[in-house]
């Protein structure tokens, strides 16, 4: 297995953009009318945590092929949420690597891999970011979809069974928990009864944290669905010159003139799409002609 991991290529990261729920909805309607001839009849998804449950329904709207899921590869050796295996790659690189490993293990030309992360965000909660990578090793295509979403999940130190119950009951019953006591750690616990069954009388206080593994974390499911929709959007956006996918307008070109003094501001005046294969590029101006003076370095230094 170690050889397989070493052999799988790490590809250069692409520029990515934030992808909101609102955009996902618009893209969804457009995608429904589009055919994705890029997919083979069989694609392999590398997942230990049942991500096909979120990914396949999104693909199904556009593709009738067979999704082979490969669950015997321990994806946690590439880094795990409990921190026991350090993450040396970025989530994007990790998603691409999993997609390449899917091809290598299955012998298929097309693979999917996905990776998520959680980061504290200005003390407001956790930002969940999900990447899903598609690779076609024969045609040398690598495209990565991404979505980000704030989630309410957090950890807590509980002093008593009542405090623990109050904390857990704020979240969906399908959310699993990790309990840390003085000497032990228990993962994948659902509901207050199964958590309390692991706590001995002299264990209090105990630490309870969300189990972020995909099959145990309903809040990730939504983000993963959006990321898959973003992937489809990118796959269906082809370069006008060479037809390589991923031709999306996401590179900001700053300098929209200030409404008061006309100086260039730090707001986008256009968005550029650039082909990752032939480097053909097109830019589209934004609809606004002027930026609010709030963004102007001269009027609002
Ligand atoms: Zn091109
Ligand atoms: Zn100004």
From TrEMBL:
InterPro entries xref list: DUF6671
Boundaries of every DUF6671 domain copy = 100-301
Tell me the protein's name: DUF6671 family protein
The top of its lineage is: Bacteria, Pseudomonadati, Pseudomonadota, Gammaproteobacteria, Alteromonadales
């Amino acid at each position: 297995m170690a050889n397989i991991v070493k052999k799988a290529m790490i590809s250069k990261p692409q520029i990515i953009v934030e992808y909101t729920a609102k955009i996902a909805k618009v893209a969804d309607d457009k995608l429904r009318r589009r055919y994705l001839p890029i997919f083979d009849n069989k694609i392999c998804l590398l997942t230990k945590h049942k991500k096909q449950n979120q990914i396949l329904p999104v693909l199904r709207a556009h593709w009738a092929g067979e999704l082979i899921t490969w669950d015997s590869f321990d994806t946690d050796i590439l880094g795990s949420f409990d921190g026991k295996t350090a993450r040396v790659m970025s989530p994007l690189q990790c998603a691409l690597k999993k997609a390449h490993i899917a091809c290598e293990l299955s012998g298929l030309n097309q693979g999917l891999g996905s990776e998520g992360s959680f980061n504290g965000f200005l003390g407001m909660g956790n930002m969940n970011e999900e990447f899903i990578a598609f690779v076609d090793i024969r045609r040398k295509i690598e495209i990565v979809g991404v979505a980000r979403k704030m989630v309410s999940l957090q950890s807590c130190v509980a002093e008593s069974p009542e405090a623990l119950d109050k904390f857990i009951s704020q979240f969906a019953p399908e959310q699993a928990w990790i309990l840390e006591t003085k000497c032990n750690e228990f993962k994948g616990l659902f509901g207050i009864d199964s958590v309390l069954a692991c706590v001995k009388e002299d264990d209090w206080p105990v630490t309870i944290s969300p189990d972020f593994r995909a099959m145990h974390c309903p809040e990730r499911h939504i983000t993963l669905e959006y990321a898959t929709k973003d992937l489809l959007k990118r796959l269906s956006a082809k370069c006008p010159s060479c037809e390589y996918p991923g031709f999306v307008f996401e590179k900001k070109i700053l300098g929209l003139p200030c409404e008061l003094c006309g100086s260039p501001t730090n707001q986008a005046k256009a968005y550029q799409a650039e082909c990752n294969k032939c480097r053909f590029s097109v830019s589209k101006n934004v609809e606004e002609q002027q930026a609010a003076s709030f963004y102007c370095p001269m009027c609002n230094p």
